[in-house]
Design a protein that fits this description.
The protein is α/β, with parallel strands linked by helices. It has 5 helices and 5 strands, in the order E-H-E-H-E-H-E-H-E-H. Helix 1 links the parallel strand 1 (7-11) and strand 2.
Amino acid sequence: MALESLHILVVDDDENFRQLLEAFLMTHGAQVTSCDDGESAYQQTAVQAFNYIVSDIHMPVMSGLELLSKIRNIQVCETPLILLSGDAEITQSELTEKGAQGFLKKPFPLHALKNMILDFAT
């Protein structure tokens, strides 16, 4: 199964990594919108619906955890959110309790992200 029918919001302050994720997801058929911080991503979610949000945790302006909290508590949005981080101290169970559906520790193979999205889609 490919990602053709999905619109995914990618949020990461690292421009090269963000572009890599965009290109990978688009190659597999997804429509991708991207932002470089949590605040601009939050504003995007207020005006546009997404099937998935893939966000780095550590970013300036608004972190991925703050974005998750605002989406879940203020917008009451159920869009699946996958968080990314190189931080070894964060655990999947902590993020699940906060409302995230998935967590990938950087660096990760790109197919792991695709597989996680497809797992949620089924």
